[in-house]
Structure formats: C-alpha cells, structure tokens
Amino acid sequence: MSSRDTRKRPWAAGMAALAWAGLGLAMGGAARAATLDPAVLPKVQAATFEVVEAKPVKDPLSYEKPLPLDLLPYQERTDKYHSIGTAFALGHNRYVTAGHVLLAGVGGLWGAPELRDASGRVYAIDKIEKFSLGKDFVVFSLASPPPGDAALAVDARPELNQVVYAVGNALGTGVVIRDGLYTSDTPEQQDGAWKWMRFSAAASPGNSGGPLLDKDGKVIGVVLMKSANENLNYALPIAEVLGAPEHQAVIDAKTNYRLDVLDTVQNGRFKASFALPLGFDAFAATYLKLGDAHSDAQLKALLARDPANLFPNGDGSHQLLYGRPSLSNFPQLIGRDSDGVWGRAGRQQHRFTLGSNGYVDAGSLARTGLVHLRRPDDLPADRFYADPAVPMEQLAKAGFFHRQVGPEKVKITSLGPPIYQARHVDRWQRPWQLAEWPLSYANVRVAVMTLPVPDGDVMLLRFVVPGHEHDNLLDLKALADFVDVDYEGTLAQWKDYLRQTSLLPAAFKDIQLDFDYGRRFSYASKRMAFSFTPALQKIAPDSLLMLGFGYFDDHGTPAWGIDEVQLWKNRDPNDMNRVAIQRYAQPPADLDNGFQSQWREVSRREHPYDGVARDDNDVMKIDTVVAQAGATSPAVLYTAFCGVEGSHAQDDMKARLDLLVKHLQVNEH
Fold first, then answer.
1. Can you tell me the distance from the alpha carbon of 37 to that of 89, in angstroms, rounded to the nearest whole number?
2. pLDDT digits 0-9 by tens, 550-583
3. Residue 20 above 50 pLDDT?
4. How many C-beta atoms lie closer than 10 Å to residue 590's C-beta?
5. Nearest CA-CA partner of 393 in 463, 350, 453, 457
6. Are 634 and 602 within 8 A, CB to CB?
7. Alpha-carbon dihedral sign for residues 316, 317, 323, 329
8. For site-directed labelling of 327, which of 56, 218, 264, 286 has its Cα 20 to 30 A away?
9. What are the pLDDT digits (tens) for 248-296?
C-alpha cells in the first residue's frame, strides 16, 4: 500500500495495524514469581473487551462453486464478527483502545467498530471523546454501556522492572493474560516528546488497545505494538491518555508520499486538530477529509519539486522523446531512475486465457497492477466498452481473482456491479474510466483505471485497504499521465473502436483512418499521410494495424502523437508481411552515439535506408527516406518500409516500396 499509510499508523508503513488486528504470530511470555491476584481477575475480565466489526451479511461476489467454509476453524466460520483489537474500561462510560484499532473501521466495508464482552454481548460506540494519532490512542463512550460500570484502577507512575501483565484479545480467540517485565522507557521516534514503555510480556495480534497491568491489576499502559526484531513490546503510558486534552482530536505525524514512477519521496507532517465529542461516522468523515487534503498537498508538492525535469521535460526525458515506440499493447509506466533518466518500466508476468481469441496479460510495477485485456471476438464491442463491469467479468472469468478459504483457493467468477464510477482525462487527453468493486469478505476494495484501446482495455489496478481510498485514487490518476501504451488491433477491431467516439483520445481528432476491405487503406494526420491498395498488401478484417505513440515537442508544447504506423497482412504472429511508416527527429547533442548514429544513417540515406532490399531470416526488407517537399536540412524525416516473406528480387521489392511511397506525403520538417 501507499507509504502514506504512515499518516494513519505513525510508527510503520503498510499493513501494521491489520497485522495486529488478526495476522502474524503469537509470542510466549516468561513465567514470573509474582502472580496477578486472583481476586482482581473477575474485574479485569469484566472491564476488558474485544473490539469487533460485523461481517457483511451479503456477498456481491459469485464463485465457481460453493465456498468450502467447513475448512475454516469452527469459531471463524460461525462468528458473525471480525475481531480487530482490544479495549478496556476506565469507568464512568469511558473506554480506551488503540487509535489504529479505531481507524481500522474508518473508510472500511465492515461498518463501525464495536465492543464485545466475554458473554458475547456487543456494544455500539456512542461518542469519540479523545483521540491522538501520534500517541495512537482513543477514548470513547458507549451508547448503552454494560451494567455495573466495571472499571480498571490506574497507576499513572509505575516503577521500572516490576512484573506486568498484558491483557488482550489474543488472535481473536478471547481475552487472555500473560506476564513479563516492564523493562525500560524509550523516546518516541518522531520528536522524543514522550516515552514508550517497553515490556517483555507476550502480545499477539489483536492485543492492540488492551491494558498493561501491574501486579495489583492497575492499568499502567495501553499495549500498542511489538518490536520487529526482539521479544520486547511497546505500550503507551496511561498518564499520556489521562493527560491528553479533553474533547479534542490531535493529529501530528510525520508522513512520506511516494509515487511509483518517481525515485524521490515527499516528506511531510500531517498536523491538525478538531473538536470532540463526535459520533463515529462524523469522526471518520472529519478525519478522512483532513487526511485526504494532506495527501492532495503532498502529491502536489512532490510533482512541483523539480518541474523542469519532470517527464517530458528536461534532458533526462530525451531518450524517450527521441527513441522508438515500444509497439506494445501491454501498458508500461514511464519512471525515473536514480540518474534522472526516464524510461519504460513494468512488464508482463502472467497470461490468463479466454475463449474466442481473448486473453488477459498481467504484470506490475511497485504497488500498481498493469493489465491488458484482449476482448474476445464473440463479445460485442458496444457492450464491452459501455459497462465497466463487463471487462471485470472477463478478468474474473480468466481466473484473475481468487478467495482463500483455509488451504483452498476458490475462483471468483464475478465481482458484481461497481460501487463507484468516475471519468478521468489525463494530461495527454486520454479518457479513462475509474471504478471500484468491494471484496467485502476481506474488507478491501479493487480500484481500477481503464483506458479503452482498439483490441480491448488497458488497466491500472490497486487493492485498497480501509481509509486509503482517496490516496489510491489520487495515485492512479497521477500515474495515468505516465502510462505508455501503443494502440493495436485488427481492422475489424479498429472499426468497432472508432465508433466509440466518447472513448477516443483527443489525438484522434487529427487522425483520419479510412479503409475498405479488399480495396484501399489510408491514414492521414497533420504531420503525415499515406495510402495504398491490395496491389501492395492484403487489406482484410484480420489485418493488424499498430499505431506507435511517442512523446515529442510540438512548437514548445509537449505532445503525445504517432511516431509509427504499421499494417501487418494479418494478426498471425508468424506472418512477417507488413508495411510501416516511421518518424525520426534529429536528436539533441546530449544523447549517446546510438541515437546520433541512427540519425546520420537516416538523414544520409545510408544502409539500410538506401532503398536496397536485404534478406533478414527469410524475410525480404527494404527502406527509404521521405522528407517534406522542398525542405532543406529537415529536423524531421520519415522512413517507408516493406517486409515480405520469402525470396524476392530487388526490382520486385523496389516496386513494392514505390507503391507505398507514391502516396506518402510528409507535412513537417
């Protein structure tokens, strides 16, 4: 997940709170001579609670077969609640838990956290009374507290090296008590403004928010986290909870913002406060509003740090601006390395097959999934492009999503309708469809940015944990500006795609594609135009058209446009018959000899751009160079290429090339 998770869980990035809430492994505590007075045990039990969230009643997902829930432990499959932490009572309808336990319910799919006692009764939270993000605690009341008002006594000035007891919901199996020693104090990492208590009593996932007791059963701290490398755990002194401002939420945490395509990090500080008491829903909305605004500011600051060298600006962009298109329909992200050079990153790692020539290619870069979905031939284009649920059904059908049930993975066959939809137009005026689907069983959303292309869709994908919906959507929208993908499809697919006028990038306003099967093919833009007939190459529904998009300077304005047009005789990858028109721009002096050498060859009409046919692995190839009529020392040139399988004489290849060049017009220099 995004490294901005630190603004919600200040001591660790990622899934720390989820690990405490139900993952990870338990740690054993050493036996001590002193024991907790048995007389206080009933009071401890009555004043300590599990923090739970209700499991969703309905599941919008469809599966390949009934879920084998009998493979799960009895308690897990029969419990109507997820156990996420521990809380305890201070008396007078005041309860304490860890801040990150409460935040596990903010922006989630399981609803508000509640308390459950040892008898299984559940109590709804009424008002949030105190909250601190940095110190990671919350004080709250219950709408209908348990009878008797059980409470734990407090010792706000505990002594070091005494026996202590960690009380908590161990691994979601009920409240347990384990002993150890209060060993030391250590300054909190951010500013050293207060000190953590360190103790050796064992603590398991789910202990977060539980009380740390002395031998008399008095609360001396709030159990919050474990050490990464040793059996010493951390608690917040109870004095910090008692001394915190009344009726106030205090947010003060260092943050860092990363974007997958950048090598730099934006460090910041999430600092805010707001008045309490508030109900949980109002608290969550206020907290998210402040946190989302902080993320907005962090991303803006990150992108504004060095705008002169942010792609496509600066010398570090030149390799992409003057290089060749990748001619790949698999999306890649344009990222910057530590040397400041921008390049394509991310690769295909898996292929999931569909029927009727459809497939799903999947890969990733950092936290972002990269997907290319080739639409099956028997799926109507109008339906495919109109409903965002249809492409997701294809991903599910291909086996992209599974639900783990005990030791078994069960294929998810449908995610149902999206719960959120929006439209986003990126810097290059490409229209993306943004949608989210719930994986309610895991309290996770699937966020997907989809760009329609001639043969289907390309996608950016994230799995979003509670409280981070805005962060991830913000990331995906920013990353859309850095997506590099070429447009490919059969002429039949292009015909269907071009009818979806609302889904076409703005660049297509300057492009005219016209083809009539068996008669002609023509392409025209403000930069270049050409056409040919079947006398040169077959023009049929299964002929494969590839438009290679690149980035270049258009009279001082960065532009996204076509650098290469290829038309293959058919879509069979083993058929090498094709024609191509390629654009070359004179590279700046800072680019290496490979760029300079290729420009010299093109501008001087040197081999292989000399109109002489050559045999390359039983494919005859021939190239020539075309410039704008009347241009002297042009900085932009085009090459025309023909490739034909088998052995063919020079005269035959030259005649084919002449047919291609005959109607080729270059309009830039």
1. 19
2. 998 787 788 899 999 999 999 888 899 999 999 9
3. no
4. 10
5. 457
6. no
7. positive
8. 264
9. 999 999 999 999 999 999 999 999 999 999 999 999 999 999 999 999 9
DSSP secondary structure string for all residues of 20-83: HHH-S--------SS---GGGHHHHHHHEEEEEEEPPS----EESS---GGGS-HHHHH-SEEE
* pTM of structure: 0.90
Comparing CA positions, the residue from 97, 89, 41, 75 lying closest to residue 172 is 75
DSSP 114-155: EEE-TTS-EEEEEEEEEEETTTTEEEEEESSPPTT-----B-
Q: For the chain, what percentages of helix, strand and coil (3-state, to nearest 5) are there? A: 20, 40, 40
Angle at 586 between CA 580 and CA 588, to 5 degrees: 140
Residue-wise pLDDT for 377-414, tens only, equals 999 999 999 999 999 999 999 999 999 999 999 999 99
CB atoms within 10 A of CB 232: 17
Cα dihedral 474/475/477/482 (nearest 10): 160
CA distance 509 to 430: 12
Please state, in angstroms and rounded to a whole number, the distance separating the CA atoms of residues 19 and 16: 5
Q: Which two tokens stand for residue 267?
A: 């460090």
Mean pLDDT of the chain: 91
Q: What does the pLDDT look like over 200-248, one tens digit per residue?
A: 988 877 889 999 999 999 999 999 988 766 678 999 999 999 999 999 9
* Contact present, 100 and 112 (Cβ < 8 Å): no
Question: What is the C-alpha separation between 96 and 238, in angstroms, rounded?
Answer: 10
| 139 vs 122: CA distance, rounded Å | 18
Bridge pairing between strands 483-484 and 487-490:
unpaired
Report the distance separating Cα 567 and Cα 564, nearest Å.
10
Q: How far is CA 392 from CA 416, 435, 453, 551, in A?
A: 9, 10, 15, 30
Among 644, 623, 637, smallest CA distance to 576 is for 644
The pLDDT confidence band at residue 156, using thresholds 50, 70 and 90, is very high
H or E stretch at 323: none
**124, 55, 117: which is closest to 86 by C-alpha?**
117
What residues form DSSP beta bridges with 165? 179, 213
Nearest to 284 by CA among 491, 110, 535, 62: 110
DSSP string, 69-125: GGGS-HHHHH-SEEEEEEEEE-SSS-EEEEHHHHHTTTT-SS-S-EEE-TTS-EEEE
For residue 162 the two structure tokens come to 């005494």
Of 39, 165, 64, 156, which Cα lies nearest the Cα of 402?
64
Decide: residue 199, CB within 10 A, 0-12 exposed, 13-18 middle, 19+ buried: buried
pLDDT digits (tens, 9 = 90+) for 608-649: 999 999 999 999 999 999 999 988 889 999 999 999 999 999
